[in-house]
Amino acid sequence: MFGIFAAKRSRISATKVEHQPLSQKIWRIIKYYLFLPVFLLAILYAWQYLQHHQLFPVENVTVIDTAAHVDPKTVKAIALPDVESGFFRFSVESLQEQLTNIPWVQQASVTREWPNKLVIEFTEYKPVARWDNTALIAANGTVFSPGSYAKMPTNLPVLNGPNAEASNVLAHYEIMQHMLAPLHLQIKEIDVSNRLAWNLLLSNGMRINLGEQHPIDRLQAFIAVYPQIFAQSSEIADYVDMRYDHGMAVHWEKQGKEPS
């Protein structure tokens, strides 16, 4: 008797589940297909509103490591229009790109700090040589203009040549300088012609013509004979032509020559 009663109750419960009120079905449809899109649209509208209204102005701009080569006035002129547009509205990527165009700037990083602060940090190029006396060349071979704010450094070697050869000239300079170091000589200037002929000016005043072919090998030949021919001589050589396969041509400076 108990088993039959329990079975009847189970059938009744199943019937109730299968026949839910229509109002509950409608409410479920409204909940999942109306409230959710409205909620998402509200978030989107709020974001757009914040971007197009200056509700959160930037009140503090901090510039890190400008050193002596970045003009603060230039930074202010570039950043001011973006800052005035509000905390959310301006584009960080766009501002970073504009700041990277400042002379000496290798990289610019712009960071928002809630609720009203903007942090700008610069990484400057580190020049290793002057390029054609009008620009500078960084350690990675990048040629950049120093601009008018800072003076051109005067304690750097001068490298001249076709712009497309800047990285190659710099690489050769570093190799050649390392080769000359045991002789206590430094390279003051390298001139590379359009035909890729190499000429060096050393710290002792000597000019060396290495020609177009195998400049490294020809410099090594010069270094090999330098102690015997030049270091021990009482005369001063001001020009050495290394373009010969088995020898060199030397122009010795005249004794008693009046300084120019």
How is this structure best described in words?
This protein is of the alpha/beta class. The protein has 3 domains: 22-52; 60-124, Ubiquitin-like (UB roll); 127-252, Rossmann fold (3-Layer(aba) Sandwich), CATH 3.40.50. 39% of the residues lie in helices and 23% in strands. It contains 6 helices and 12 strands. The protein has helices at 2-18, 22-52, 72-84, 92-100, 166-180, 215-231, and strands at residues 60-64, 105-113, 117-124, 127-131, 135-138, 143-144, 158-160, 187-192, 198-202, 207-211, 237-241, 249-252. Strands 6-5-4-7-8-9-10-11-12 form a 9-stranded mixed β-sheet, covered by helices on one side. The protein has a 3-stranded mixed β-sheet with strand order 1-3-2, with helices on one face. 16% of the residues are buried. Mean pLDDT is 82; it is low at 1-17 and 256-260.
Task: Give the spatial strand order of the biggest sheet.
Answer: 6-5-4-7-8-9-10-11-12
Percent helix:
25-40%
Architecture of the largest domain, CATH level 2?
Answer: 3-Layer(aba) Sandwich
In percent terms, what proportion of residues is strand?
15-25%
How many independent structural domains?
Answer: 3
In DSSP terms, counting alpha (H) and pi (I) runs of 4 or more, how many helices?
Answer: 6
What is the alpha-carbon Rg in Å? Answer: 37 Å
| Low-confidence region ranges | 1-17, 256-260
The secondary structure category is alpha/beta
Q: Span between N and C termini? A: 131 Å
